[in-house]
Amino acid sequence: MSANPHPLPLSACPTCSYEMDAASSATDPSYRPRPEDYSLCGKCGEVLVYAADLTLRAADLKDMLALDDEQGRLLTHLQRTIRRERFIK
Ligand SMILES: [Zn+2]
After folding, report:
1. Which secondary-structure segment (H or E) carries 64?
2. Which residue from 15, 18, 87, 89 could staple onto 43, CB 3.0 to 4.6 Å apart?
3. How many domains does one find in the chain?
4. What span, in angstroms and rounded, lies between the C-alpha atoms of 86 and 82?
5. Long-range contacts: 20-29, Cβ < 8 Å, 24+?
6. Could you tell me the pTM of the whole model?
7. pLDDT tens string 25-75
């Protein structure tokens, strides 16, 4: 088994510079990221969005306003968990 079974293009978080090349879904383990999907930096919890080439960029105000209530609650919950637990030092 590969060390990274779900590789993505290498992206650096625009807030903390943490480099990511993998992702996992909070709700569906088999889901793979698509362009315009939301993500969170695993280190600092910044809200990110996948570009067409599946690299990550910071979410902007337009992205945040496009979230429905359930998506917003899930992102907030996960962001708080990442920031509280500090999974990645
Ligand atoms: Zn970050």
Report:
1. helix 61-65
2. 18
3. 1
4. 6
5. 20/56, 26/74, 26/78, 27/74
6. 0.87
7. 888 988 999 999 999 999 999 999 999 999 999 999 999 999 999 999 999
Cα(30) to centroid(ligand 1), Å: 24
24 assigned to some structural domain? yes
CA of 26 to the centre of ligand 1 (A): 17
Is 41 a member of any domain? yes
Token pair for residue 39? 């993500």
The rounded Å distance from CA 2 to ligand 1 centre is: 25
CA of 72 to the centre of ligand 1 (A): 18
Is 2 a member of any domain? no
